[in-house]
Specification:
With about 400 residues, this protein is an alpha/beta fold. The protein contains 14 helices and 16 strands.
Length: about 400
């Protein structure tokens, strides 16, 4: 039929709605659907609305009958106009509904941030976009948006995404950040600003760690870390694996925020204010978790890949090392050198544990084995002399 196409595969009905669906053609469409679907055991229905221009109440009743007959119904690629009709009539609460996303390109755009799940690009002077590495990232985008809102309400200076876009086969979140640049870029352009950058960086870190949530409002970082222990333990000596599990398991749960990927590219400078981005990793936990992830960025990966800091941050390794130790001294005024060394040992255990898990997942190569050996040595040496990992 002119206004509908139906294809059934593996008990999934793909129904494409085309043009106008209204009282004039709804009865014929219903009869056609009943005839096409009646001979199949349908488990789910996907309504492709990419070419749907308008749908009236008669068309909506047709979809309602589908929803009553088949529990799993999803409408995708709705234009803003059609989506508004679905939303106003309550259909966004009756079935899964996905808008058609604006398509953009990041070709030639500057990468200003990089995190666990995606890269952040500067689109123009006013906007940035986070491109997710997962091609099915819509749920991840909504999760990060929710986490960012929670942090923003608590007073954390962060950008809230206001749009979701399509970038090739991937999805991205769009943020407004006027005339901002990352602290990594500030430092890469002028190393003499290290002291200024460090103060901004530490002030925001303290703000993060002093922000308290209710238990269960965010995930606990300690629970995530125990899964990492399970992944790396087979590569450690039995004694080291047992002690590592005890040390990580003994880190007390905490209701204060940690970022989970805190580095210079994830802090933007806008009008003199440090603004946090890449919020999909925020959790609750002891501050040692952030010091561990910072250790990886500024020190740990440098032991594996000598030019890592220049490739990732465009900042020399010695400047990154100084930033890390200056961060500790500024965060803990009056801290002794012995206490600094102990804190770094704690951070290194958690940091190398995370690096090790990452390389375990990668394809095995000679370099892969060398990296795992370095991580193993760093973990085993330190756990043998530590009694706890938390601060």
């Amino acid at each position: 039929m002119e206004n509908i196409k139906i294809d059934v595969n593996n008990n999934i009905a793909d129904i494409k709605l085309i043009g106008h669906i209204d009282s004039k053609n709804a009865p014929q469409l219903e009869a056609f659907m009943d005839a096409e679907l009646g001979s199949h055991e349908i488990e789910s229905v996907i309504l492709d609305c990419s070419e749907l221009v308008y749908i009236s109440s008669a068309g909506l009743r047709l979809i309602l009958k589908l929803r009553k007959k088949y529990q799993d119904v999803t409408a995708v690629e709705l234009s803003p106009e059609v989506y508004d009709i679905f939303e106003l009539t309550g259909f966004t609460e009756l079935l899964n509904v996905r808008k058609r996303f604006r398509e953009i390109s990041v070709e030639g755009c500057e990468i200003i941030g990089s995190g666990v799940n995606g890269d952040v690009y500067r689109i123009d002077d006013e906007t940035i976009v986070k491109l997710y590495k997962n091609s099915d990232a819509l749920s991840d985008i909504e999760t990060e948006r929710s986490l960012a809102r929670k942090a923003f309400v608590k007073g954390i200076p962060t950008a809230i995404p206001y749009d979701t876009v399509k970038i090739g086969e991937y999805y991205g979140s769009v943020f407004e950040l006027l005339n901002s640049k990352s602290l990594a870029k500030v430092l890469a352009e002028d190393n003499s600003k290290l002291d200024t950058v460090t103060h901004l960086y530490v002030d925001l870190l303290k703000k993060i760690h002093s922000t308290e949530f209710r238990e269960g409002e965010l995930p606990q970082m300690g629970a995530k870390s125990l899964t990492t222990v399970d992944a790396v333990s087979p590569y450690l000596s039995e004694a080291a694996a047992e002690k590592l599990k005890h040390l990580v398991g003994s880190i007390p749960d905490d209701c204060h925020m940690v970022h989970g990927d805190y580095h210079l590219k994830n802090v933007m400078l806008q009008n003199g204010e440090a603004i946090l981005i890449d919020m999909d990793t925020i959790s609750l936990g002891n501050p040692i978790f952030d010091f561990a992830y910072m250790f990886n960025t500024y020190v740990g990966y440098g032991e594996l890949i000598p030019n890592n800091s220049m490739e990732f941050l465009h900042v020399p390794q010695d400047v990154c090392g100084k930033l890390y130790y200056d961060t500790i001294r500024l965060y803990f005024p009056g801290i002794t050198e012995d206490d600094i060394n102990e804190l770094v040992d704690k951070a290194a255990v958690l940091g190398f544990m995370r690096i090790m898990k990452r390389f375990i997942k990668k394809e095995k190569t000679e370099e892969h084995d060398r990296f795992i050996a370095i991580c193993r040595r760093n973990i085993e040496e330190r756990v043998s002399r530590l009694d706890k990992l938390y601060i």
